[in-house]
Amino acid sequence: MDYRFSFTDLFTREVDFDKDNQVKVSSIVIPQIQRPYAQGRTDGVCTYIRNMFLDEIFENLTSGNDDIFDLNFIYGIIKPNNNEYRMELLDGQQRLTTLFLLYWYITNAELDINQPESKFIRDCLSKFLYETRTTSTVFCQELSSYKVELGNKTPKEVIRNSKWYFKSFDRDSTISAMLTMLNAIHDRYTQQKQRSLFAKLQKLQFYVKSLGVFNLSEELYIKMNARGLQLSPFENFKADLTNFISQKEYGHFQEMMPLYKDGTADEVSFHFNFSVKLDAKWVDIFWKNGAEDFDNAYMSFFSRFFACKYIIASKNDVSDRDMRTDKTIRILYTNAEEQIGGNEYWGFKPFKTLLDEHPEYVETLDKVLDVLYSNERIIYKNMLPIWDKNNELAGDDFYCNTSSKISHIKLIALSAVIEYIEAMDSFDISTFECWMRVVWNVIENTNIDGLTPVSSLIRKLSMVIHFVATKMGTEKSFYKALSQWGIENSTEKENRALLEEVEKAKRISEDPLWEDIWKDVEKHPFFKGMVTFFYDPAMSKQDYAHNAKFVKSMFDEKGITKEYRDKHILIRAIVSQFNTWNEVNQLYVTERAENNKFLKNILASNEKVRAMFTHIANNNSILDVKANLQHYIDDAKEPQAWEDADTNGILAFETATKRLRKDIKMYDWISKVERERNGCFRVYWFEGHIMFAIPRKWYAKIALDTERAKMANDLCESYGFEFWDEEQKAMYDKYKDCFGNYIWIKQDRANCTLWIRFDLNHELKIQIECKTKKYAKELYEIFDSTSYIDEGEKCIQFENLTHYTKCKTYNKLCKVIESIYEAIPEA
Q1: pTM of the model
Q2: In a domain, 538, yes or no
Q3: What domain range is 155 assigned to?
């Protein structure tokens, strides 16, 4: 039977006992293993559920029409009990308990105790049995027959003062929740102008399913009730979702289909089948840590699923950039991940808004969960890229557990799985593995540093797999279909890593042997899928394999190998390909494999560097490769400074470029500091200089465009100056440069100290700090173009010089120093 029941119908009409027989139930039982009644709790989640439910009920009861209020379905196990039958509820406890309380309240308010209708209702109420605790059982039985005038008091006040109410009832959370619900019903009822609601209670109806008919009872009973007694956010969400599906006017939701259970020919509605699978089938996907983590894992999956679908659905309304501050994605993803394991339910509204516009996402959800259930091991193995695997069976099940918050990268991977399942007519293991190989290659080689690239890549991969699925429908292979993406979608702004995968697909579609060649190189611990920076489309398989052999020896999991860090020949050759200020400005230079992938980004994006690798790899020995690298350094293009650079600017850029190409000791220092500080050096403009530094680390900074350190040291050796900062002196002795924004050197004399400061903006300052004001005045009168630089007039400064190369600066500086020595001969 497939028709609706009211609360009282449960005890007067027949329900299915098995496939062939119907029986009348003598009682509805909430078994001991069920959780306490929760809709009357006072926490935020339950208050939200209670208010929403009562608002909908009273809106229907007072509407003035005969529309049925659909309470979805309840299901349970019907068990013979002597000559009677009792139904033990598996799902619907919360709703049915609220109806029990509503029937009691309105009957008590509107009917006399001796009216036949009142006696009938109270008889039905007495057959609703709570067995979670003895106190709950007694309370419900006493309440069923209780008649009282409330007057100006609340139900809770009156009932707690009744003779049959024991103090022990106060320690029963179910009873406390029932009293809270009765007060809430009382508030709604007394606020209504219409007080004749008894006759309309029949409008509150639901479907009744006896799961014994489908041989599901034991399975459901165990899994549903092993979750513990706390009403979780997932339980609230599940109720909202199944209620939405059952009431949504969308064709497929009402269609009849075979029950998912094997070995049965029974047909049920889509929404019923979906609900049963939620509790009996898909449970196994999330049952990793048993009941302890089950609800959290299930709820997290739904939040992540709808976060992915929202990003795709909102493409025309929310830009990738605006996704960073979007309120809905914050609820579905950002906040949801923060709240894993908490007991906060943020409501169904964001889900409902999305599903109202895209009810087909429920079908996708149904399909995805079915595929996850049937192909769990296959999907598990493909949720980890090949370069992260230590054996063939290794994988990841982050999509169905809550051991850690899901990362941006993993959310993209999950979305790629969802979109694949949605796009394809069936789940083909081979095609899925091809797809996930492409997905991981693209993810790994895209800069995922926030929600903007997450949104962009989720949307992009969705378009790609739906395009591929459409093309495969015309009997094309996966790779043949993928190879056509760039041809037919030329207007799309393309992801660089995706274009590489399209090129690989093209070669595989031409010759399937390319696939194993690509895969072998992709698993290299540094390349991680990025394997065309030494490739040319005209290459044969043999030529590419030859190139790959040499290039693989240049890199390992730490970055550039020891062989090619010798004299830093490889990184210097790479940097030598940059000869303009636009190319060098903001360039990160490192030999390491680090989280930001600066080195990989250069290899992936710069055509001159890629051409260099394609050329140098076409050699027969490491010695030949190194000789070619040195050739690229020595014969690099002449530097081209910024457009409006003056003579000094041109000189500064030439100096900086020369050092980046040939200063081996500078790279020695950089390597040391990077290891110590775990940072990367960047070229940038600061206070008139081309600086080379780890951002925000003043001690890990040098000026590339001046030979200030060399000049400072020569002055120390030739004129007896000394470095004010001993650490700068130590660095110069070992690496021939000094860190910092400034370099100070000084020389103490009889009545003063001579200071030379290599300052920012290429300013070179010469100062004399005198011991007395009188002596300072004497020197001030001796030297032209000097000025006091302190209020006490003890320190004078000469007119500023500039510091660039030693050739340009040093002689002028020496002349000033010697003129000072002539006036101050004694040391």
Answers
A1: 0.76
A2: no
A3: 4-231
